[in-house]
From TrEMBL:
Stored InterPro entries: EmrB-like, MFS, MFS_dom, MFS_trans_sf, Sugar_transporter_CS
Entry keyword set: Antibiotic resistance, Cell membrane, Membrane, Transmembrane, Transmembrane helix, Transport
Transmembrane segments: 21-45, 60-77, 89-107, 119-139, 151-170, 176-198, 210-229, 241-259, 280-303, 315-332, 344-363, 369-392, 463-485
NCBIfam families in the cross-refs: efflux_EmrB
Protein species of origin: Streptomyces rameus
Location of this chain's protein in the cell: Cell membrane
Name of the protein: MFS transporter
Domain Major facilitator superfamily (MFS) profile: 23-489
Amino acid sequence: MSETALKAPRAAAPSGDANRWKALVFIALAQLMVVLDATIVNIALPSAQTDLGISDGNRQWVVTAYALAFGGLLLFGGRIADLWGRKRAFVLGLAGFAAASALGGAATTGTMMFGARALQGAFGALLAPAALSLLAVMFTDAKERAKAFGIYGAIAGGGGAVGLILGGFLTEYLDWRWTFFVNVPFAVVAAAGAYFVIREPEGGRNRSPLDIPGVILSTLGLVSLVYGFTRAESDGWGDTVTVSMFVGSAVLLLAFVLVESKVKAPLLPLRVVTDRNRGGIYLSLGLAIIGMFGLFLFLTYYLQVVKGYSPVKTGFAFLPMVAGMITGSTQIGARLMTRVPARLLMGPGFLLASIGMLLLTQLEIDSSYGTLLLPAMLLLGLGMGTAFMPAMSLATQGVQPRDAGVASAMVNTSQQVGGAIGTALLNTIAASATTSYIKDHIAAAAAKPQQQMVKLEGMVHGYTAAIWVAVGILALASLIAFTFVNAGRPDTTVVISGEGAEDEVPVPVVAH
């Protein structure tokens, strides 16, 4: 190992850029905007569908167009951030996201709406990895990094639930178009603040030529994978197009791995994902998101359809989960990250979330919010917040500065693909269980009110069947975190990256 490499920890000065905490405010604001957008539009979808005359068959494209562009272009967006500079990519991503949001709010046809959502996804794929990699290169001191990623992790975890509240308010009291327009002031403030405040560290760019074959193969492979799961939800797992998408995705992604192992300047250096800790984090995070994404949808429908909550009341019902995530991330994860190994936060965190999920398997039509939903949401939030925080930090810790963008993009990719899988897989399980229940019980219901009750019971039965699967998935995420992630405390171990590989060596770091 070179003398320069051994001096690397000394260069990671905790004093850093004086504006880094101000920069965190604008980075967090941008992250909140992206996370909000994932759920805020779902609340507005029924109203938008009616206004724009979108058919039931095509309405899924409001969600799918965003997911395909975002999931497919994330690795490319991360590499562009490494090439152009994270600050430039961040500001351009915000500007593009704002313009696409304004276009969506002004949409007069379904096609215009789908195009706006695809553009939001494309600029989100540039913005999200740039935001996370800026944190990675600006906060290098272990304790400061813990605080910064605690705030970021709380927003990443809880922003979706906040989107349900904001979406409910805007749709109920203003107009569905404001669920798009609201992004514009968010983006303008974040971009202006970032332009004047963020000072990206020198020498962190990756100026290697762009790996065009890697870009094409990864984008097409990820788009095929996300679309395959989206298609499976609506058309079934045995559908010819669905199967073709999965087969095509496997071939494309395998070809991508082969290309990346051969080219001189790969889009995704394999050293980023083959590292035991980062690999374990990408896998466990993806699994946790699979378990969580379906739950948001089930609980939203349960509260509105079964319990009769308004959109605003439904949003507020998710607040305990948000509070749990913020507490777990900033008060547990951030405080303990420099004292205990990451696996002792991630493993128990995912396990606690699975216990919260286990409570929800007891869901019935007349379940009490206070005695069942409230404690379940608190446990889920606490567990996920505690686990997310060290995961976000460790996923980018120790990577070469020139790889920070693609390492950050892999975090977002595991979440995005996990979300697509979770929505499709859990929805399919729920729908199948609901159909079977109604078929077995509808004959015994003579009157129309009884038949309606059977349908509601079938809906709840379907949710609990899917939630049982989510319990197992979260337990598996916990097991992977315990077994794969073996990094020590960040204040006693520094990962130093060489030119071709990475070695983990114990280096004493002065505590500040």
